Amino acid sequence: SQTIHQWPATLVQPVGSPLSLECTVEGTSNPNLYWYRQAAGRGLQLLFYSIGIDQISSEVPQNLSASRPQDRQFILSSKKLLLSDSGFYLCACEEVMNTEAFFGQGTRLTVV
Amino acid sequence: RKEVEQDPGPFNVPEGATVAFNCTYSNSASQSFFWYRQDCRKEPKLLMSVYSSGNEDGRFTAQLNRASQYISLLIRDSKLSDSATYLCVVGMMDSSYKLIFGSGTRLLVRP
Fold first, then answer.
1. Test the B interface: residue of A44, A55, A59, A68 with most B CBs within 10 Å
2. pLDDT at residue A26 above 90?
């Protein structure tokens, strides 16, 4: 079965600093990968999804970007963080279309 | 209109109660449907998939109504441990396939 690794678990970054969150997947090949953000007390907002290497779709215009340099690696980045970027960032993996998605344990980002 | 909509709640019910959540989706071409459970400050975890014929897993029953574009989750004999946020999830084709989450319905089960 697939395993999703996300790190770090918690991150505090100053406004204007860069960001790089990494998600790696084990136990599957060519999965669909997702980045979601959840603000405190809110639902999950889809940020990016990827159906393959270097194939990224962006859902919401923002100062974040995503890359998928390898089949099982999905990276979320920012050049300059904003206060509004604070939230719980979740990476999800879907092995086959129309099956359930599994989540990493998430990164709780606080921008100060 | 949001692609997936849920009543945010909270639903505050006593132990043993039966509670039902509904979720509506806007894209009639949606292909797959799920209910997830999310505990406070944790990642969402799959509760159950939702099939056209409806499906049951112990105290939980999920149903899909494609004509009306809604999904339901029924929890019977609520336990304290059922307290969580329940997320409705829809898989749909846009430019490619993607999973869209509802904002969740919060359930509080009291003694």
1. A44
2. yes
